[in-house]
Fold this protein.
Amino acid sequence: MRNVLSVTSECVPLVKTGGLADVAGALPAAVAAHGWDMRTLLPAYKGLIKKAAARKVLWQSDDLFGGPVRVLQGKAGGNVMLLLDAPHLYDREGGPYGNPIDFPDNPQRFAALSFVAAEIARDGLSDGWRPQVVHAHDWQAGLAPSYLKHGAPCDVGTVMTVHNIAFQGLAPAAMLGALDLPLDAFNSDELEYWGQISTLKAGLVHADAITTVSPTYAAELMRPEFGMGLEGVLAARAGELSGILNGIDMDVWNPESDPEIIPYSVKSLAGKKKNRNALIDEFGLSPTTGPLAIVVSRLTSQKGMDLIAGAADAFIENGGALAILGSGDPQIEDALRLLTRNHPGKVGLRIGYDEALSHRMFAGGDIVLVPSRFEPCGLTQLYGLRYGTVPVVAATGGLADSVVNQNVAAAQLKVATGFQFHPVDQLSFAYCLKGVTEAFSNKSDWTRLQKRGMNQDLGWDASSATYAALYERVSK
């Protein structure tokens, strides 16, 4: 076995705010099948040491960015976790990034994560484990390749994965010294981004290879409308950039064995109808002959959630109904509350997040709406495919890569698995939903559409092999 250190700010089952956590939790087992022993370095947020039963000290320092730190080994979800125990940085109430706004010392908090990753890469852990590759995820780990680049020579390869380029890890230039970064690295070719430090840019510049979570998103990132100011950096490194589509845990997301639902399978969808009826009851909806649409999402404009209210009226008039779970932008939340009041019995809304409820929604919905303006990969549409809940998606990023649009050619070839719309605006979305409602009325064709999605291999086999080959290429 060869060794790879995954560096991330969140990882299931310990802490999750989005899809990054799912990917970080799935990768270790996925790449193990290809001969790579992955350990995951994660901040020891409040309560995580106990959850992971992390007791064994494998690395320590008396002072890092204002206090003592230790690396404790534990286990979670079957994976080896290396928890960075730094109480002055992580032992606090709130989410991983703020409570509710960003913590002002986030630059130091995640620079510490990157710094320790680089130290482990150089010197290994006290049990003799040392990685051949460091795999850094998003801006929170973006400085790991930089600390390796500007420190003592090191023979460890680095991979930087962009899960969402909208978050770039900005910090004032005056913090260079405080973050133990060399002054001469503050230039337009390295750390400097519009007069500030960008930890994401640092990772993109200094890593041996760059990946993102779908091939289409990789191509999109080199264009101004998607690159968010970093398109030039990515275009300059196009030779080292690749897109590797995310998978899902096929055991956790399995309609035949999911403990949260009435089981069913691709061979018999009878149980799905029972889940549909139960979901209608749970959300207080009236029985509907049209499609029951679900939304499980952060309620933000990036996710296209502002389009829901505008497109819903016609969808409901055509017999559709909506069950919505999520939280986010207060204005979008208010618009959805108003939609619920205007359509009693046709729209149900739950503000917040509930993992068990999300499983019941995928089991009971007819369609899942994912109208994102940009979407690096997206897992929601994959869960929908797995559960026979047909995805209706914007034609962008990983949504375009993972859902085969029900157009004329796809219908003739019998390969469609869902519906795409473009451009990403209210008019296009509403028109697509009109076509979905018409398609739903043909029950035999609809069942075949559901089953094509359910029969897909949505797991990590192909993607993990690609990651393993990439690790092999960058290892030195």
Q: What stands out?
A: The chain is about 40% helix and 20% strand. The mean pLDDT is 96.
